[in-house]
Structures are given as C-alpha cells and as structure tokens.
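Reviewer 2 asked us to include a model.

Predict the structure of this chain.
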Amino acid sequence: MTYELTQHAAKVLDERGIALEWMERTLNDPQWISPDPNDPSVERHFRSIPEFGGRVLRVAVNTTVSPNRVVSVFFDRTQKGKP
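Predicted model (structure tokens):
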C-alpha cells in the first residue's frame, strides 16, 4: 500500500521508538482491521509485533485519500493478548 505519514504520525514513530518496518508490516499485512468509531474515513490496522514482546501495534490510516494517509501509530494496551 502506498502511504504518506502525517506530521503527527512521523513524530510519534520517532518519540515512541516504533520501527518504520513494524508500521509498514501492520499497514500492509494487518492481522485484523476495524473501522474508527469516530471517523468513517479512518481504518485501524492491528498486528502483534513479536520483536516488541508480542504487543499489538495500531496504525490508524485514512483510506479515502490517495496515497493513504497514516494518521497515528501506537501500541494499543486495550488489545493485549489478541491477535
């Protein structure tokens, strides 16, 4: 998937020490996807990251624009224990 990062997404990747490769893996090959309940243009892509203790990475992406726009990226504690 082609994408661009918002300034916020680029900043949090750096601040939170999230590898770009993990974000791209989650974006391109999510274990599951759910709609954002507050914004119908945004999908949430989720993937467990074994290199980070199996924690679940959430990538919020606006899929209504081209290229798709990554809005935010973070490890989602509410998804602990899931893939």
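The mean pLDDT is 94. The longest helix spans residues 7-15. We have added this to the supplementary material.
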